[in-house]
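fyi for ur records
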Amino acid sequence: MNTRTLAAALVGATLFGLTAAQAAPKPKAKQAGAVTVTVTNSRKADLVQLEAAKSGSPDWKEVLGPLKSGKQASAKLPQASDCRFDLRGTFDDGQSTDASGINVCADKTLNLTD
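which gave:
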């Protein structure tokens, strides 16, 4: 009787352990496919934010926050299959800039100008 109880407990523990291992969430993948772009703000106005979306996508994401005039910063963009992004920058003087279909893999620099 004790042998059956012990065997049932071991089977139950083993099944529970397998179920718990299968149900454990997977760790988030690192941004292995990220492309780092150097952004230079050559405008007289400060950049408020830079947003990016895969070319043609409506899903805009902020990739860079405030950047003073004359300064540089790095922005990380998730690598798209064709490396093409639409970019939108807004500035503290109320102006904005838009660029479509930029290949960030070919040229890893972005110079914001007046």
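The first strand starts at residue 34 and ends at 41. thats all i got for now
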